Amino acid sequence: MRVIVVGAGVIGVSIAEALTHRGADVAVLDMRGPGRGASQASAGMLTPYSEAEGSSPLLDLCTRSLALYDAFIARLLDVSRGSIEYARTGSLDVALDDDGVAKLLGTKVALDTTGVESEWLDENAVRQFEPSLTPAAHGGLLTLDHGLVGAESLVNALVHQARLAGATFEFPIESLSIEQLGESVEVRALDRTWSGDAVVVATGSWSRRVKIAGVPALPVRPVRGQLLHLQWCEGDLPGRIIWGPHCYAVPWSDGTLLVGATAEDVGFDEGTTVAGVNALTSGVIDMLPHASGARIESVRVGLRPALADELPAIGPFTSAPRIVAATGHYRCGVLLAPLTAELVVNYLLDGRHDPAFVATTPDRFARN
Ligand SMILES: Cc1cc2nc3c(=O)[nH]c(=O)nc-3n(C[C@H](O)[C@H](O)[C@H](O)COP(=O)(O)OP(=O)(O)OC[C@H]3O[C@@H](n4cnc5c(N)ncnc54)[C@H](O)[C@@H]3O)c2cc1C
Questions:
Q1: Domains of the chain (ranges plus CATH)?
Q2: 147 Cβ below 6 A of ligand 1
Q3: Closest CA relative to residue 316, chosen from 199, 178, 193, 197
Q4: 269: CA distance to ligand 1 center in Å?
Q5: Residue 6: CB within 6 Å of ligand 1?
Q6: 48 in contact with ligand 1, CB cutoff 6 A
Q7: Residue whose CA is at the smallest distance from ligand 1 atom 26
Q8: How many whole angstroms separate alpha carbon 162 and alpha carbon 29?
Q9: Which of the four pLDDT bands, split at 50, 70 and 90, describes residue 7?
Q10: Would you place residue 367 in the very low, low, confident or very high pLDDT band (cuts 50, 70, 90)?
């Protein structure tokens, strides 16, 4: 089967790699280059229980995907020349006041009910456990299953492995329109056309701009996120992801820390702002006082692809079943990459409609 994947963010390259692994012939098109959309800005957190509400379709997707992560990374490391930073060191949600304590204790009860392993650390225990925290910390909730992955190294490894297995990558190519014509599909750019048996639309925040014949535009909207990349200079770097009331901090083995993130409705503006940097620096200093001595290496920015119900659109269009959506992953695209690839590949190569498609079908927007 020949599949054209439009968009080479973490979602498109995960799908391309999984398709080539199963023997498909894959061409990937991107208007910038692999990983140059939202994926380069991602903090790489794999934290479903902090991102999604208890017993929601999003939580189901996120926990299913997290369960695939160990094998996903192990398979890539088997042949990848580079390395991928990946750790399941848990995450620590920190309360800085009594309201924060009450909220986290409520979360603990919800996690206990569903059998998710977590541990409540009171004010003394939390400071002992994580000495980089402010002495004002009132307590913390440790969620043991959570983890992190270096998004850039992950995208590079996926591209490398997909190429080794025969995928072609072409960029800069902006796909303008897509059409199913009987048993085949056509993808058109300004002056070229690609034909195949199926096409995957993995165009993130820009999905609304791709014209798909016979279906309404996918109503994905960009939500800007700014993120600080800091070089830690004083005291111990935190040992795991720390979530506070105003920001999160993700430590890396090279002694740097990512601090995120803003969530701004500013259209396709990928600029960084003083207000964004100010909010993140004050949020992280409140939580980790030694952050005041850290050096700002860079300010990253990315456009999260959001749909109104905050669920991704994954699956075929009923009226054009050879056109498959894989977009709208909003805050969780890196976490959801292995599951998205598995669902799309099982559909394209085995004709399997995963039960998750009921919630993620791209047709749900045509009904409104
Ligand atoms: C600051 C920030 C922090 C984040 N932190 C996390 C996190 O900790 N954990 C997590 O799981 N997620 C996180 N996310 C979300 C995650 O980054 C996104 O959900 C994910 O990157 C989406 O991947 P994607 O491949 O769908 O989109 P993108 O990475 O944006 O890729 C889409 C690609 O499509 C290409 N494209 C678009 N239109 C066309 C076209 N017409 N023709 C050809 N190519 C096209 C673009 O050039 C781009 O390369 C974060 C996002 C931000 C901004």
A1: 2-80+150-220+309-365 (3.50.50.60), 88-146+221-306 (3.30.9.10)
A2: no
A3: 199
A4: 15
A5: yes
A6: no
A7: 204
A8: 13
A9: very high
A10: low
